[in-house]
Amino acid sequence: MNTHPYLRAYMAGIVVPTLVLPLLLTVFIVARIVIQVPTPIERVLIFPMAIVPSLFGLWNMLYLGSHTRTHHPIGLHGAVLPLLMAPIGALVATSLGVLQIDSGGVTWFQACHVSYALVAPGLLAAMTVYYLVWKYIIGSLNSVLGIA
Q1: Strand pairing partners for 106?
Q2: What is the value of pTM for the model shown?
């Protein structure tokens, strides 16, 4: 009998973003409609809601396929994902006109300027969160599904 380990790895990978992104959508809708935030934040949601769950699933499949050769812990594997997602997200945001990159930092919606001194700690914080999510949540889902 074929147990389809890559399908189970994909399914375990998409659980976290599939549960978290609707919560973020709710926060953004409340910010946009109730609090009357003037920036079109719904344009920012299209990329994560379309790509992130599939990327998590594919990343978990890659972990399953490469773990026998690399022997890296799943948390470390997950912590690398923001290093791939950040440039892709910046490219898409720049293409949509949502993000402007200049010598002093980045500007979202021509309203919120973030200096590079804050971008680096933000990326480190994202890597820390991804490490913990992958180590404790996705790693345990992999164990439950028998693919760890």
Answers
A1: 101, 114
A2: 0.85
